[in-house]
Design goal:
Helix content is 15%, strand content 46%. The protein is α+β, with helices and mostly antiparallel strands. It has one domain.
């Protein structure tokens, strides 16, 4: 009976996590330096990243506050491998660093950000 109760608790935990992130990626990421996302300068630090599959947008959140969002697309790995760690690809142009790609741990896809808007406004 005790094993069954533990199994139910684990299942409830996993199910609640799936519900919390059902609409997007909902992964934590840390930017090691200031980056520009769709014209918005995002300060270095820890953020939550979500990808909306309906609108093809990536959203960067700090708590309840939407910091930046950008058009993006998913790129599935040809080898069907999952990312072991989170990787961030930043492209430097002039004095600014632009976020180009997110590879989130545990996912089979990379998120490629739209690089059309390279002008910058503060966070």
């Amino acid at each position: 009976m005790k094993k069954f109760a533990n199994l139910v608790l684990v299942a409830m935990f996993l199910f609640s996590n799936q519900l919390a992130f059902a609409g997007g990626k909902g992964k934590k990421v840390e930017f090691p330096r200031d980056v520009v996302i769709n014209g918005t300068e995002v300060k270095k630090g820890k953020y939550n990243v979500e990808f909306d599959e309906k609108t093809n947008e990536v959203m960067i959140w700090q708590g309840d506050k939407l910091i930046a969002k950008s058009n993006a697309k998913k790129n599935t790995h040809q080898t069907n491998r999952k990312n072991i760690v989170t990787e961030i690809l930043i492209v430097k142009q002039g004095e600014k660093s632009f976020l180009k790609r997110l590879s989130l741990a545990g996912e089979q896809e990379d998120i490629l950000l739209d690089m059309q808007n390279l002008s910058v406004s503060p966070q």
